Amino acid sequence: MNRVRKQVLMSLSSGAKSFWELINGVDTSIFELVKCLDALISAGVVRLRGGIFELARPEERMFSAETRCECCKGTGTSIKSFESVYKKYCELVKGRPLPVVGSGYKYEYDQGIIFEDDVIRRVAFMHARGDLNDSEIIVVGDDDLMSVAIAATGLAKRILVLEIDERLVNFINKVATAENFPLEAEEYDVRERLPTGMRGGFDVFVTDPLETVVGFELFLSRCAEALKPYGAGFFGLTRVELPLARWQLFEKFLLDMNFVITDILKDFSSYAHGIENPLEGIKDILSTYDKKHLEFFEKMKLEQEIMRVKPKEPWYKSSFFRVELVGEVRPKHIGRISGDVYTEA
Ligand SMILES: C[S@@+](CC[C@H](N)C(=O)[O-])C[C@H]1O[C@@H](n2cnc3c(N)ncnc32)[C@H](O)[C@@H]1O
Known about the structure:
Layout: H1 3-13, E1 17-18, H2 19-25, H3 30-42, E2 46-49, E3 52-55, H4 83-92, H5 116-128, E4 136-140, H6 146-153, E5 158-163, H7 166-179, E6 183-187, E7 202-207, H8 213-225, E8 227-237, H9 244-256, E9 259-270, H10 273-276, H11 278-289, H12 291-300, H13 303-306, E10 317-325
Parallel strand pairs: 4-5, 4-7, 5-6, 7-8
Antiparallel strand pairs: 1-3, 2-3, 8-10, 9-10
Helix pairs in contact: 3-12, 4-6, 8-9, 11-12
The protein binds S-adenosylmethionine.
C-alpha cells in the first residue's frame, strides 16, 4: 500500500496546496514526499502551477477532514497553568544567541529553535509526568533554552546543561546568575566522554539529538549514562528528516539501553527556521543522509517553482518522546568517538 500517495491525494482533495502545506499533510520524510510528487506529476495525476499543487483528475478525489484540536495545536497539552512561566521565559530569552546558517545551507551545529509556547508545552508535559518537581535534570544541547524555562518554573532541584556552543553556555550562565537559578551550563561535545562525576547523577534528561545514526546514539547514550536507575528522559525526533525504518532503528536502540517508550506526542514542537529559510531547510535535510537525495531534488528542478509560494505555517516539526528506564541503564557508547557526526557517511 502506498500511504504517502494516499495522504497526498487526501490533502489535495481538500484544496490545492503549496509544497509546505503538503509536507504538513503527510506522515513522511521530505525525500519520500519529493519522490511521490515526482511520480504523481509524471503520471498526470497532480499538476504544479505557480508553486501550487492540485489534483489534475477529479476521479482521484478522496474524503479528507481536519481532525486536530484547535485549542492546543493538536498537542493534547494545555499551557494555561504555565502562563506566568511563559511570560517570564519570553522576557529571559530576549537577546538569545540564534542559530546561524554556516557553510552552504547547513545550520551551525544543526541548530534550529522551537517557538516559545512550544517550549512551555514541553515543560508542562514534563510536569504532568511527574518529572519536574524536585528533580535533578540534565539538558544535553540547549539552543531551545529549555533549561531556562524549567528553571523559571522554580520546581526543579538542579539543572545542568552540556552544550557545544560557547554563546549558549555563556547566555545560560548569565541568566542563571542574574536570576539566582539552580542552573549551570558547561561547554561539552557529545563526542567526548561524559565529564567525571555526572554518571548516574540525574533523575531526568532532556535533549534534541542529531538525527544521524551516530549523532542520535551519542546524544542518547550520554543522556542515559547520566541517569539514575528508573530515571526518565525527553527528546524530539522528526519524521520530516527520517523514514520510519530509522525510527525503528532508534526505538530498538532505546530498548537495548533498557528504556521503555512511554509517550510519543506527534508533531508536538514547531520550528521557526522552516518559515524563515525554507529552501535552506530542505536542502540541509536532503543532503544530510544521502547525497543522492539532494541530487534527485535538484534534477526535478522544483526549487524555483515551490519557492513561488512561501510557507505561512511551520512545516518543520518534531514529535516529543518520553522514555523511562526499567532498572539500571545500559548506555551503548561511553568512550570518546571522533569524526563527523552531522552528516551520514
Ligand atoms: C543537535 S541540535 C538540534 C536542534 C533542533 N532543536 C532540532 O531539534 O532539530 C540541539 C543542540 O545540540 C547542540 N549540539 C550540536 N552538536 C553538539 C555536540 N557535538 N555536542 C554537544 N551539543 C551539540 C546544538 O548547539 C543545539 O543547541
